[in-house]
Amino acid sequence: xxxxxxxxxxxxxxxxxxxxxxxRYADFPEPDIQVGETAGWDPGRAEEIQxxxxxxxxxxxxxxxxxxxxxxxRRIFVYKFMRPDDFAWAPIDFPGVRYDxxxxxxxxMPAKGTAHLLDAIRQQGYDLVFDDPATDPAAAxxxxxxxxxxxDEVGEHQFIGRLFNERGQIYQGCTxxxxxxxxxxxxxxxxxxxxxxxxxxxxxxAAVAIEPAGRGSYASESGYxxxxxxxxxxxxxxxxxxxxxxxxxxxxxxxxxxPQACKIxxxxxxxxxxxxxxxxxxxxxxxxxxxxxxxxxxxxKKVEFTTSQ
Length: 309
Fold this sequence. Notes:
six-stranded mixed β-barrel, elongated
């Protein structure tokens, strides 16, 4: 008598999903038989496997994003992908986006939007990192944004709809906060995460953790200090007092920088010492003689990275 076993296709929609679960979760039910790379489970264990699937919270330990990463990603969605001056369900907007006469995204626009969002994430000093180094970040992010998912992939009672549709609209009722949450959750299901990127030598001179310290001027401080201007920020950079978000100070003072970053033109990447998103900014050092008035001041609390120039 030949006994029919449960195969991976009986457990999940995609066979590769079972392989991922077996690699990632130590408590996944072990197969009763293994022939080469083909695994089988006794049919009597079907309920055991289903019970495991019901209690699986997405990727487990990594499904809850840090508040810092989630806030950075939310702002990227708001200011770089959606329309900050419009309703959340307004069609997405990015440089070069095209819609046809019926309001549908033009050919190739979803792929172009994915590439734009990935570039925006990287411009903020973050990158997509995967357990499998062969994973294509652009393909993974495209699937996150545009595909419908299953409970087998992200867990029971999780959002499985298309995050954005063919009209470039976010799923009805969702906001940029939801977009950030579901993006992190889905990347985790693919074995990925959004993490601070390692600064590239030659592009960032120093990476530092800072905290605000009122106002000051270059002349009033001692030690290594620089006057900087923001060049890359999750906040809109507008120096016009009448803008919707208020004027952004054009010059700032950073005190306690490493000496390698004191040269005019140096790029300093900052993070808040308390791990909030408010100071994840790239700055360029400008001529300290260009401003003598009191300006907002940051104090360096920790040096993360420096390169020699």
